[in-house]
Amino acid sequence: MTEITGIRSRTVTANGLRMHVTEAGAGAPILFLHGFPQSSLEWAPVMQALAGRAHLVAPDLRGAGDTEAPPGGYDSPTVQRDVIALLDELGLARVDLVGHDWGALVGFDLCLEHPERIRRFVAIAVPAPYFRMNRALVVGLLRAFPHLWFQWVTATPGLGPRLLSRGRQRLTRHILRVSEIRPKRDEDAAAYLRALREPARARAASKLYRGLILPGFMRALSGAYIGRVLQTPTLVLFGADDALLPKDALHVSADDAPNTTVEFVPGGAHYLVDDNPEEVTRRIAAFLLD
Fold this sequence. Notes:
It is built from eleven helices and eight strands. The chain starts with 7 loop residues before the first strand and ends with a helix. It has an eight-stranded mixed β-sheet with strand order 1-2-4-3-5-6-7-8, with helices on both faces. By secondary structure, it is an alpha/beta fold.
């Protein structure tokens, strides 16, 4: 793991999993959950900026970064248990939560399944899981699916791990560049590529898509979350240049999530934290700390 000034690292065993955890600052706790194919490195600029205002905790999730990559457990219930066990191990009864990409998928589930542990939530680049089918959403999905071919390739047993880890890692490089506005820091991109060269981590990444990312998205589209009201005060941040779904489809009904706000951040797309870390940090601080 790259050493970054002001950010501390340690290993914690939670839910039987040896997890690499980065921390900064002191005070009220904020937990950060990274996206794919990233690690806690994603949050370094945000953590450095906010270290003087809160206790910031960013683990490498199951199979990612320097955390163990066991053969199984790449589903939302297991990852939720990882996170809750980590909070218990760190003595954190209740936290504010920030999640990007699949970290945000897990974040929504944590808010619904363990509302007593999450005070407020910032979801980045993932909508609240309350899709209601209409013409605009269907058209948007039809336009988006051809650009998401890499998700099904990644999820394919054998093929996905091979393409993620071997040769020039063109699949991993493609995923890291999808919708990228500002290039990722060279040392971060190198760390993500290096981690996936390990066969166990490449297999874990494929299982994550099969067991959590694609099923989570399909559950939301199927209406499985309708009726499960999200009470946690939530801010959803989307890159204004993220064209995955039409903006109208990202707003959520007060019947589903009465305390949820959606904001569009300029100068960013799916990798919003990398594209515009200054504005993301400002909005996180305004929602959680001001």
